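Quick illustration, no need to memorize.
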Amino acid sequence: MTDRNKILLESGTNELEMIEFEMGKNKYGINVIKVKEIIMPGTVTPIPHAHPYIKGIIQLRGEVLPVINMEKVLNLPQEKCPTEKFIVTEFNQQKVCFRVHNVTQIHRISWEQIEKPSDMYSAADSQVIGVVKREEDMILMLDFEKIITDINPETGINIQKLRHLGERERSDKRIVVAEDSSLLRKLLIETLEKAGYVKVQCFENGKDVYNYLDTLLSETTDILKEVQLVITDIEMPLMDGHHLTKKIKEHDQLSKIPVIIFSSLITESLFHKGVMVGADDQVSKPEIEKLVEKIDQYIL
């Protein structure tokens, strides 16, 4: 997967490659840059008293990796599939293996093709964060970060990690955030308020952020008086964080705004993509205390 990832990272166009896999009768998708490799199932060692999602652990080239049973995650009947595969992933600074029924193909699509699920059929705690409509069927994009956080809440954003910063003065600096997860938007607002940043404006995707900034330009001659910093996730419907960063940094006036990418995809092999699009800094989720330290550097 490494060579394929390097090719993708050169583009900087609002696109992704998505690996399609099957669970039961449904088709699901995972961003290819999360995937290290796809392997045939190996011997899984069960772990007593583990979380229900955890099937056990495997050893892969000297590393011990947890195996997550996607049947449990998606509440499907347990079955033995002759086509089953293990998808080995790396994000949130950890490697995890997902057991799926089958891996079928790879699609190259635009983030604009991914629709946010309607509140009518998607509960607040749903793992589905996007829907890709195709002529013959649909592919559901899953929130793999949420799956990991459900298993181990310590891997998520923890406001208690800011305790060492002590009491903070309230800041009148405005921060704009692009984050598609409603849970993470709420956590970021609460955490940044705890850090003294009370003027935080959140949007669900990069396109809404860019349109907001573009609108502000018609109302001010100095954009930095209105917005002092942008924080963006990478994976978002309509416009991803890399494309948003690139558009901001290529704009004569908007380029003055510091942009910090805050994502589970800040890894050694992917860091240079943020550099290529002009990000001022990059912080891996869930290192919220490091994010606050970076904010302090850029806008205080």
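The helical segments are 2-9, 70-73, 144-151, 182-194, 206-217, 241-250, 271-276, 288-299.
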